[in-house]
Structures are given as C-alpha cells and as structure tokens.
Design brief:
Residues 219-229 have a biased composition (Basic and acidic residues). It contains 26 helices and no strands. The chain is mainly alpha-helical and 474 residues long. 38% of the residues are buried.
Length: 474
C-alpha cells in the first residue's frame, strides 16, 4: 500500500472517531500504520482512540511509539501524559508532561495536562473522597478488573460499549459515582466480583438483594467527573514540512524570494513526497522570470506527484504553472499542450479561458510571423503567370498565398478577385474586392472590378454606385 492510501485510512479513522465509532477508528488507524509505519501522526491518533475507548495501556504504547518516531512532536507527550494519568500513574504522567514542556515551553495542552495530573495526585494522596467507595473497593477490584470482566461469559458481552468500558476503568480505581450506581450492568459486575448469586433468567434473585450504596453528594460527583482526564480529540497535525511551506508562502508574499526558496527547500527535505512544495518553488521562479527553472521544477513536482498518487488538482496546477512559464516566453505550442494536460487532470474554467485566448493569440502570432512582402510579390508573380496561361485554379492558389504573405496589399486582393471570377466564384470575388477597397478607398480599378462583379450578379443598382464612386476619383 502507498502513503496516499495510508492518508485515506487516517482521514476515515478521524471521521469514525468523531462519530464515536471507536473500534472502527482503531481498525482504520491500524491500516494506516500498516501502510506507513513511519508516520508518527497515525500512532498519535490511534492513541487518542484507545484512550477514548478506555484502553489506556494501548494508548500509552502508541504514545511511546509516536514519540519514538518524532520526539519533536508535542502531541506525543500529551498523549503519553493522558494515558499515564488515566492509569493513575500520576508521577509518570507529570514526568511526561514536564518532558514535553521542556521542549515546547508554554504549550497549552501540556500545561493543562500537567496541572490536572498534579491536582489528581494531591487528591489521591489526601485519601478517598466522600464520593469514593473506600480503600476496600480498590483492594477488591484493582487494575485487573477490566480483564476479569472480559473473561466472564455474560459480562464480556457488554465490552462492545465504550461507555461501559469507561465505567469499568473508573470502578477499578474505587471511584463509585452516581453514573455507576444507575447502571444495572455495573450492579451485575459488583455481584460477580463480590461473589453474590447472580440473577436467574426470569430476573428473580435467590437471595435478598444487596443494599445499594449510599447516594453520592452531587457536588462531589461533579468533582470526580472533572478529575477524570478528558480523551484528547484528534486533530490534523501540522507537520514541520507544512510549517516550512507556510513560512515560504509568507516570505513570497513579502517578495523575499531567496528566503522563500530556502523555506520551500526545507519543506522538501522534510517531506519529499509532496509535489506542492515543488509547485511553490516554480511560482517563485516564475515571479523572478527564471522561466526555465520554473518549468524544470514543475516537471520534478509532477514526477513526485505521480510516484505518490498526488490529487488530480495538484497535478493540474503543476501543468498550468508550466504552461504559464511557456506562455510568457511566447512558446505557444508547449504552453497550449500544458494547459490541455491540466484540463485532462482536473477541468477548470479559468484554465479553459486561458487556453482559448492563448489559441487565438497563437493564431494571430502565426499569421503575423508568416507575413513577408518579398515572398508575397513572388507568389503574386507566379499567380500572374498562371492567369496569363489561363490556369485560373493555380492562379487563385498563388494569389491566396500572396494574400497570406501580405494581407494589407490591395492590388493582390484585386488580382485574386479577378481569378475567382474566372472560376465563377463571384461571392468570393466580391468579398476580396471589398477588402481591397477597405485597404485603399481610392483604388479606382477596384471600383471598376466591383461594378463588373455586381453586374454579373445582376445587382445593377449596386454596380451603378460602384462605377460612380470610381468615376468620382478619376
């Protein structure tokens, strides 16, 4: 599997976690890790899922893996501290948070976690609160309660409910609160752990029910709820490479182009699998008119994108940026090809407009580049020869070539009109003679030719006007 597939598993895992589908989230994060075991974020996210499920031991294991892969990732220390806090290993939790703060001074999540761990440690050392069930419960259940419940034939069926698992973890600490007392499943756990007879199928008990524990004062219950470490929500972590890119973007906007290039190079060194950084470098080269370097950078980016299954939109952006580099150099064919490739990757209306305008610009440029007065005269001379030899078809071709070479030459268009008349194309002849008159309104022979054509087309009133205009000039 590829890194792109791993990212997809991570994104799906995030959605599952937000929907509280914890088992599904863990499974998806595991698939992401199997696809790319070097990405510390996947372990961090799975740690959060395990902690939310109530499996602090596995959460701690993943947190340690996260830190092992990237010790410069603040969330790794937060994950570790939260897992240790949930396990009531307060000293270790405090040490984890302090370790993180030594690297990331002032980090809000680490500071909050440290304060909560210290607070709960002080409460634990001060003895059980009124809301607790006393040290007898701690000795009776202990940290192995979850395993005992999972091994029981009937109680094990409740383990698929994350809220039940969370309550068992709370019960294992001797923390008997109102939400536990109100859950009949917890009462069943108490019966099993205390060795009391279980209820039969009909729900009747073979002995009198055990008296319910005393009600817990509401204020103390709320204190215990606050004391529980909150599972940390999964976030899309900001990678160092992305931070370097953002730094480059800021420098680019400030027109500090050399520094921007250095920042993008740093991003590439941190994550060589993202083509975005290459495209950003190309933008700098475009702005500084280093067009060849811009093209080369886009090509490198496309290679990286192809190897790492980059999104089609990113590939399209690279093609379009390369097209822009060619366009400003008047390399129309290369630019048009790049824009077309961009549209094949991901259609964009803006790129389509640019492409159409560029095609028109190329057509005009090609027409202008083709013009040559000397070659126009040569083609005209060949046309005259064919006309005298009564090879009117060949004459038309040569005159048309001459028109392409010198589109503003009225005499050539007049000759073309004469040749078109010989092959009975009077509409074409009239079009050419009108263009000749637009180019030279005082061209008397053109008026005479126009009048002749109009008589042939039986447009006698128009012919009269054409002859009068010619006579007015001569």
């Amino acid at each position: 599997m590829t890194k792109a597939e791993a990212e997809k598993f991570k994104a799906d895992g995030n959605k599952a976690l937000m929907a509280n589908n914890l088992s599904e989230a863990i499974e998806l994060y595991t698939k992401a890790i199997n696809a790319d075991g070097t990405n510390h974020v996947y372990y961090s996210n799975r740690s959060a899922a395990y902690l939310k499920q109530g499996n602090a031991t596995m959460a701690l294991e993943d947190a340690n893996s996260c830190i092992g892969l990237n010790s410069e990732f603040s969330k790794g220390y937060s994950r570790k501290g939260a897992a240790l806090h949930s396990l009531k290993r307060y000293n270790d939790a405090i040490a984890a948070y302090e370790d993180g703060l030594s690297k990331f001074a002032g980090d809000a999540a680490l500071t909050k976690g440290l304060n909560e761990a210290k607070r709960d440690k002080e409460r634990a050392e001060a003895g059980p609160s009124m809301g607790g069930a006393g040290p007898g419960f701690n000795n009776l259940f202990g940290p192995n309660l979850l395993a005992k419940v999972a091994a029981h034939p009937k109680l094990a069926s409740y383990m698929s409910d994350a809220s039940f698992v969370e309550k068992i973890n709370k019960l294992s600490t001797g923390n008997m609160s109102e939400d536990l007392i109100g859950d009949p499943r917890i009462m069943e756990v108490l019966q099993v752990m205390l060795g009391m007879p279980e209820k039969d199928e009909g729900g009747a008990s073979s002995s009198a029910p055990a008296p319910a524990p005393a009600a817990v004062p509401k204020q103390k219950t709320e204190e215990h709820k606050k004391a529980e470490p909150e599972p940390m929500e999964v976030e899309e972590e900001t990678e160092p490479a992305v931070l370097a890119k953002l730094k480059g973007n800021k420098l680019y906007s400030q027109k500090k182009f050399d520094e921007a290039l250095q920042a993008y190079d740093e991003a590439i060194s941190l994550d060589g699998t993202s083509m975005t950084f290459y495209i950003n470098k190309a933008a700098v080269y475009l702005t500084t008119k280093q067009y060849e370097k811009a093209v080369e950078m886009c090509k490198e980016g496309l290679e990286v994108g192809k190897a790492n299954l980059a999104p089609f939109e990113e590939r399209a952006k690279a093609h379009a940026r390369m097209g822009k580099a060619y366009q400003v150099q008047k390399k129309y064919e290369e630019a048009i090809e790049c824009y077309k490739n961009a549209q094949l990757e991901s259609f964009d209306k803006g790129v389509q407009r640019t492409l159409k305008n560029l095609e028109l610009e190329k057509k005009k440029a090609d027409t202008l580049a083709y013009q040559d007065d000397d070659k126009a005269e040569e083609a005209k001379a060949r046309g005259n020869d064919f006309f005298r030899e009564k090879k009117f078809g060949e004459a038309v071709k040569e005159y048309e070539e001459a028109v392409k070479r010198a589109p503003k030459n009225a005499i050539i268009r007049n000759n073309l009109a004469a040749a078109l008349c010989k092959i009975m194309d009077f509409n074409g002849a009239k079009r050419e003679i009108e263009l000749a008159l637009d180019l030279d309104p005082e061209y008397v022979k053109a008026y005479a030719r126009k009048g002749d054509i109009e008589i042939t087309m039986k447009e006698y009133h128009k012919a009269m006007d054409s002859y009068k205009k010619g006579l007015a000039l001569d």
